[in-house]
Design goal:
Strand content: 15-25%
Number of strands: 5
Radius of gyration: 18 Å
Largest sheet: 5 strands, mixed
Shape: globular
Oligomer: single chain
Length: 241
């Protein structure tokens, strides 16, 4: 096995229900066709468009992509880019660009980047939609963009917490520095609009997340042990088992 079967994007499920992992392996979901739903393909197209927008701002001398250029074109998987997909990607991108313009970090955006999560579980990794480390402002910003309609909160979001653990390891933040490092965890949901807009944010000190990270580590270990237990909760709605 060259990678961990634990998926960072499913952390909100397996942290709350450690029995889900073995159960999903025992009873895999029944897929039709090529196994990828239309909603998932649209979500991937949404991320693809956002990546193009952000990279056009990050790359020096690169021509900024326009709506006219993207709407009506096809994603890498053959999905037609609609106005809704473009506008959703722009809502998410605008929040990233707002932060990066204010902090002067346009050239420092980490976009759709793989992050090693072996600090949580062997061979585990994830792909973070976007993150930037504002050294001057002593703040780490991490975004997760969702194109679905179901609301997802930033507060105690286990997927984002796993990313924090990996990024802190990557940038060399230790148990002393994390006490002064601010963390801004941001969920962008253009199709699950809140009264305050499409961005939900949870801010805290990195040190405040130590207990959460320990919970993730414990859940990862329990998932492949005899201690794994199935629990009923909100996570059942999206459980792959």
């Amino acid at each position: 096995m060259n990678k961990s079967p634990l998926i960072a994007s499913d952390a909100n499920t397996w942290v709350n229900c450690t029995g889900q992992v073995k159960l999903a392996l025992q009873f895999p979901a029944i897929e039709s066709g090529d196994g990828v739903s239309e909603a998932r393909l649209e979500g991937r197209a949404f991320h693809e468009v956002a990546q193009k927008i952000l990279e056009s701002f990050k790359t020096p001398d690169m021509t900024l992509v326009s709506k006219a250029e993207l709407v009506g074109s096809l994603s890498s998987e053959g999905v037609v880019i609609t106005d809704e997909i473009y506008d959703g990607a722009l809502d998410y991108s605008n929040d990233v660009l707002k932060v990066c313009n204010r902090t002067g970090l346009l050239r420092d955006m980490h976009i759709e980047e793989r992050v090693d999560l072996s600090c949580l579980y062997l061979r585990m990794y994830g792909y973070v939609d976007c993150w930037v480390h504002d050294v001057q402002g002593n703040t780490l910003y991490i975004w997760d963009a969702k194109f679905g309609h179901r609301g997802v909160e930033a507060f105690e979001n286990w997927q984002l917490i796993t990313y924090v653990a990996g990024i802190l390891e990557q940038i060399g933040v230790n148990g002393h520095v994390d006490q002064n490092l601010n963390v801004s965890l941001r969920v962008a949901q253009p199709r699950s609009y809140r009264s305050g807009g499409p961005i939900d944010e949870w801010t805290c000190k990195a040190s405040d997340l130590r207990a959460y990270i320990n919970i993730v580590k414990s859940a990862a270990e329990d998932a492949y042990s005899e201690r794994a237990v199935c629990k009923v909760g909100k996570q059942c709605v999206t459980c792959p088992a």
